[in-house]
Amino acid sequence: MKRSGRPGKNDENRACKEAILKATTSLIEEIGADAVTVRKVIEKADVSTGTFYHYFSDKNDLMMAFVREESFDGFELETPSDDVAGRQAELYMHLINRYQAMGKDFMKQFYTTNNQALSAYLDEEDGRFSEGTVMARAEKELEICAQLGHLPSTADLHLLAMDVCTIVKGCVFEWCLSRDRIDVQETLQRILRLYFASLAHGAGDI
Asked: Rounded to an integer, what distance in angstroms lies between the CA atom of residue 23 and that of residue 153?
């Protein structure tokens, strides 16, 4: 029997949300992210329409849950701290790998200016990135690199983090458009190395 109305208790709330995410994961594996619909998720999770929209505003918001589900603070980077570009690329590949797991066809529809959930995640609020996001972790990594003397002392680290995010967006967008012509990791590393090399040589007093 389907649940009706909005859930009330915390345990039930958690169970309902987990059921929706589990159903979505199963559907992605069965038919691919592109073919997943809200209706199919509701049917597979055996929840009401109202319950689904209590947790997620639409399919894009649901898919963003898979990007947000793990904090980007919970793992160590292997790239040495003196390789600023490589370290940023390694960090952002954790996010890009999640994108790639959804499939290129889905990402072409998902990675658009109309996706408010994605825009909100990749944006800042009151001049700060939300805790647990890849951008917040990227800025923390830049702060560490600056403290170790691997970045110019005059660098605006928040602005650098925003620039890196913009570069990543461009690489992901190009990957979505390309027909396997782009190695997104190699492209990201190459552009980031050029960007940070310009700072080291005084071409960008940021």
From this structure: 49
CB neighbour list of residue 206: distance below 8 Å, 6 or more residues apart:
152, 154, 155, 156, 159, 160, 163, 199
Q: Which CATH superfamily is domain 10-56 in?
A: Homeodomain-like (1.10.10.60)
How many whole angstroms separate alpha carbon 23 and alpha carbon 20?
5
Q: Where are the domains of the chain?
A: 10-56, 84-200
The pTM assigned to this predicted structure is: 0.79
CB atoms within 10 A of CB 201: 8
**End-to-end alpha-carbon separation of the chain, Å?**
59
**Tens-digit pLDDT profile for residues 14-45:** 789 889 989 998 898 888 888 899 999 999 99
Q: CB atoms < 10 A from the CB of 103, how many?
A: 15
